[in-house]
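Open question from group meeting: does this chain pack into something compact, or does most of it stay loose? Before anyone orders reagents, we agreed to write out a predicted structure and look at it together. Recording both the input and the output here so the notebook holds the full record.
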Amino acid sequence: MNVCLLNDSFPPVLDGVANVVMNYGRIMQQDLGANVIVGTPKYPGAEYEGYPYKVVAYKSMDTSKIANGYRTGNPLAMREVEQMADFAPDIIHTHCPAASTYVARILQNEVKEKYAPIVFTYHTKFDVDIAKAFGEGFLKQETIKAMINNIAACDEIWVVSEGAGKNLNDLARMVELPEFTCRKMMNGVDFPKGRVDADKVAEVTKGFDLPVGVPVFLFVGRIMKYKGLPLIIDALRGLSAYGVDYRMVFIGGGVDAEEMQNKVRDYGIAMDIVGENKEITHLAGKEEFVGKVLFIGPEHDRERLRAWNTRADLFLFPSVYDTNGIVVREAAACGLGSVLIADSCAAEGITHDRNGFVTEESASAMALLLADLAKHPEHMRDVGQHAMDEIYISWEQSTRAAYQRYEELHQMVLDGTLEPRKKLSSDFLLEAASKIVKGTEHVFDIPRNIYGGMKENYEEWKEDMREILPEKVVEFGDNINKFGDRMVEKGKEIGENVFGKKDDNED
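Structure tokens returned:
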């Protein structure tokens, strides 16, 4: 089949959902015999070549200050949409309910030869991000309503956990729209099952004060407060008050990193900072990093991350925001058990004290649990082994399940049991807007193509013209050519003055 994957994040931005799209694309293209194309907003300076599938990057605008570092794609980038339509997808799978899903709907309308079902996966509790961007009140309510209507235009809804489905339907009820019927489809991890050998662990953790017999706790992810990081630091303060020795390693970067580091400082817990935050560390120039709490910045090398997961005794992930928590299964791949919050999405499938640990959402409860587990290292290792055996799922397993469902949907289209969905009022609006933009682009193409063709032909025949025409005529042609080039440059200059430099704002 021809599969089109759409998402608002893709390298150079790396997050959990970008990871999903990259693994889906790679495995479907290389292992399952599919033809894959990926559509994503363009980031200035990013390279989109070298992937095992074609990447179509469409115009975007800089919304990083209000959207946690993300740009927003222009869903009416019709040149790129037409490229994807020429690919003739059998399945369109969108992983973000904003620009990507608008692109999916426009693309579905542009694929003329057949009906390509749209699959949507709800990965993230978007109401949290919407509230951060717009605050509470009317704007939040209307944005959620637009998002739910956008999702409702898709043919099938997938969720990564039961909790994600509940959150999505809570939002639908909030804006008085119908609930969704959702299909649970788990994400996998790209860590192979098994611990890293001792030599590699020693190499990666060399120089860090990690005494034998002292429990090492680990967090990997974006350093954002909504990941439950304040709760971890409050629990560590409690551990220190109990007189328990430990080491806590935070791996990742994020907008709340400095605030979390200052919180540790304020509590008087010994802390060292390495990695990308060297400007605020007091350890510049030292070879050894000594302290109970370590912030070591982002780590993109997957083998080094596996080594840290192998070295740790417990993974701490008290997030009630995440809908799946891939990092929990990455930890499990390395035989590392996790501490999770009761009734959170990340705790689904976890049996307390067998393949993980579940606690209340309070610092005191976590501190008491960690203090008790610090006395029983063998039990932590036993639970980690159960996690490896029972909750690990590879990307190969996850992607094959997704592709199998694609095949079922495709067959339903062929045999008529999945008919084109009834159009919403917003479909007609999107269709009209896309036609206007497409027509406008073609209008601008005419003078651009005429000028380009004239210039190319002139340069090609210039020398021949010298033999049959006076030099003044050739000189006149050169001047016309230069004038055209100056007009192009002037147009760019005006555009930059109005819209900002191209690298800052592609639109």
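Observations to bring back to the group:
The first strand starts at residue 2 and ends at 6.
Residues 429-499 form one domain.
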